[in-house]
Structure formats: structure tokens, C-alpha cells
Automatic annotation (TrEMBL):
Gene Ontology molecular functions: hydrolase activity
Family annotation (Pfam families): HIT
Natural source organism: Prochlorococcus marinus (strain SARG / CCMP1375 / SS120)
Lineage of the organism: Bacteria, Bacillati, Cyanobacteriota, Cyanophyceae, Synechococcales
Domain of life: Bacteria
Record-given protein name: HIT family hydrolase
Active site: H99 (tele-amp-histidine intermediate)
Alphabetized InterPro entries for the sequence: Histidine_triad_CS, Histidine_triad_HIT, HIT-like, HIT-like_sf
Keyword Acetylation on entry: no
Length: 113
């Protein structure tokens, strides 16, 4: 069983979020600590701690998350954006429920960190 996270509480409706998109596979909402003018998180409804724990049966879910990320970026009016998946604490992951950051609305430098 997966560890309880703030995202599992958001998915259950125990914590409010600024929802952008929702379907049977995922939920997208604005990050409460945005790093750019547009900073949206896309999370699967299935509890997967990180990309490292994703399995072959998650293949269509992972593709769906990326397509939703692109759809949301376009809906937000972004012509250029960054999608980020942090895997593990040393990579910057702080919530251990797989999530995609959709970041844009300003010039993004490289390398990021």
C-alpha cells in the first residue's frame, strides 16, 4: 500500500485545490508554491510513489499524463513550457506520489538546477 500524501488527500477531496482539469485517470491543479507564472501539477489517480515505481501496466497512464500536460499548457496559452518529473528526494521530489510539473509563462533557464 502506498504512503499517505497530500496528493492522496486532495484526490479524496479532503484538501481543496485550484483544479484545472480532471478525468477518470488524473487531476491537474495549480501549485501552491509556483516557480513561474504558470505552474500546474498533473497527478494520476493511481498512487504511484515515483516514476521509478511505475510498471509496464502503467504505460497508457503515463502517456495520458503527458498528453494532458500538453493540453493544459496549450489551454493556459503557453507556446513554450517545461514538463518536469522529479524522481527521488535528491532529484527534488518532496511528495511521493508521481506528478508532472507544467511550468511556463517566463523564460526558463538551462540547466535548471
Amino acid at each position: 500500500m502506498s504512503e499517505e500524501t497530500i496528493f492522496s488527500r486532495i484526490l479524496r477531496g479532503e484538501i481543496d485545490c485550484d483544479e484545472i482539469y480532471s478525468d477518470e485517470m488524473c487531476l491537474a491543479f495549480r501549485d501552491i508554491q509556483p516557480q513561474a507564472p504558470v505552474h500546474i501539477l498533473v497527478i494520476p489517480r493511481k498512487a504511484i510513489p515515483s516514476l521509478r515505481e511505475a510498471e509496464i501496466q502503467d504505460e497508457s497512464l503515463l502517456g495520458h499524463l503527458l498528453l494532458v500536460s500538453a493540453k493544459i499548457a496549450k489551454l493556459e496559452g503557453l507556446n513554450h513550457w517545461r514538463t518536469v518529473i522529479n524522481s527521488g528526494s535528491e532529484a527534488g521530489q518532496t511528495v511521493f506520489h508521481l506528478h508532472i510539473h507544467v511550468i511556463g509563462g517566463r523564460k526558463l533557464n538551462w540547466p535548471p538546477g
